[in-house]
Structure formats: C-alpha cells, structure tokens
Design goal:
With 139 residues, the chain is mainly β. The radius of gyration is 14 Å and the shape is globular. It has a single domain, classed as Metal Binding Protein, Guanine Nucleotide Exchange Factor, Chain A. The two termini are 26 Å apart. The chain contains 2 helices and 10 strands. The chain binds zinc ion (ZN) (2 copies). The site of one zinc ion (ZN) has 9 residues, from loops.
C-alpha cells in the first residue's frame, strides 16, 4: 500500500450514521449465517474485516445489539441499516458492511463463510472459496 492510506467512506440509508475506513481490509467475505440474515433482512451479507484502529464513525452513533455471546452488531437506530459486527473472538478487527459503502464495487468479497447456513435458493456465480463455518476453522 502507498503512504496515502486509502479512505473508504460509507453510511446508513438515512445518512444519520457515517463512517470511514482508513486501513486495508484483512478479510473480505460473504457471510451466509442465520444471524446476518436476520439482522439484515437479506439472504447474505458482505463484510470487510478492518483493523480496529483504521475504522471510525464520523457522524452519529450506531445503535448496538448483542446478537450472540461476545458479538455486538452496530446499526442505525433510525433507519435500521446493518453497519458493523465486532466479536470478542477477533478483537483486532471490526467487520463493516461493504454494502453500506458509498462505492461498494471497490471492496469485493473474496470468500464465502457459513455456507452451512446458506439458503438453498440463493447462489452466486463465482469460484470463490467456500467455508461451512469460519474460514479459520477449516483452512
Ligand atoms: Zn440511518
Ligand atoms: Zn454472519
């Protein structure tokens, strides 16, 4: 990466919560888990794992919800957009919804995780690696 740390910006649907990413992602993934599906109301979510020091909210404060033990999801408590996941199991990273970026095309997912929860009617035409649970469990 160059000296100019790339800044990706994004935010929720209503604009009340905005964020910036100033560090290269460590992981880009589709997550098919049931909790992402419920939290987003969509068949799958796309996440970018960002070093915590490289992420900040620049406008508003997200609502927070403990979706599993040790896992906190951030969302706009006005419009409901899913924005982040922080897991105590991965304390150096915060996961940011790439679909909430102003330019989501720039951070394409590289793996599928939790395919054990994938909906039968949802399939993507890509050749990316697929993991039944977390990538780390099966590498
Ligand atoms: Zn909002
Ligand atoms: Zn998930």
């Amino acid at each position: 990466m160059s000296d100019d740390t790339k800044i990706w910006a994004g935010g929720c649907c209503c604009g009340a919560v905005r964020f910036e990413i100033g560090a290269e992602p460590v992981l880009l993934e589709f997550c098919h888990c049931q909790t992402c599906r419920r939290a987003s109301g969509a068949p799958v979510m796309a996440w970018a794992g960002i070093p915590v020091a490289g992420f900040r909210f620049t406008e508003g404060e997200p609502g927070r919800f403990a979706s599993s033990p040790g896992v906190t999801r951030g969302f706009c408590d006005r419009c409901g957009t899913s924005l982040t996941i922080f897991s105590e199991a991965f304390p150096d990273e915060i996961y940011v919804s790439t679909s909430a970026l102003d330019d989501p095309e720039t951070l394409a997912p590289e793996v599928h995780i939790w395919t054990s929860h994938k909906l039968g009617w949802f399939e993507t035409a890509d050749a990316l690696p697929r993991y039944r649970r977390f990538r780390a469990d099966e590498v």
